[in-house]
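Hi R.,

Here's the chain you asked about this morning:
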Amino acid sequence: MVNMIEVKAMKREKAGKGASRAVRRTGYVPTVIYGDKKAPVLCSIEEKVLVALLNKSGFWTHQFEIDVDGEKFRTVCQDVQLHPVSDRPIHADFLRISKNAKLVMDIPLHFANEEAAPGIKEGGVLNVVHRSLEVSCSPDNIPEHLELDLSNLAMGEGLTTKDIILPEGVKLVDDEEITVVTIAEPAPEEVEEAPVASPTAEEATAPAEAPKAAEEEGK
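And the predicted structure, written out as tokens:
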């Protein structure tokens, strides 16, 4: 059974910039619930509630049951627009989903046992090529993250998408095998050349030493 997060919302009748500004002045964020081949639902979520949800780990893979004045919608968040200066949420889009829907989700990657990796112990540098991957799954099978175990990874080695153990009912959208993470050798340190000492004022003004006379022939 999927553990959905319940969110209270208020229905709003008007769309447009003016109506959205009016909603934000009351401490709420204009929100749209769309998808599942049904008409979109205009509503608003309290800003402090949305901010608290955004700050929780796994926000983009969680499912939310949004209660709009008593009518409940099963959703996942598709986008939250932030103010360019204050970073406060100014609009949110939630995708309405049914139990039998097929979803394409961007799932974050977690790298376990990094400190135990032989390559890291030898001074190697972890090079993360991809931090998330797109998967296809049903609403009941959305993983919070995909994990890769680095405990056996040596210097110069890497792990690919074929090394990921996918949960049941979850498939990668791209079937091509791609590198996800490697352990690279550390960059060589640059050796700084010792600076050439400048002559002192006394040395610079001293007369040059006269060359020694050559020995006379026959001596």
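The longest helix spans residues 17-25.

Let me know if you need anything else.
M.
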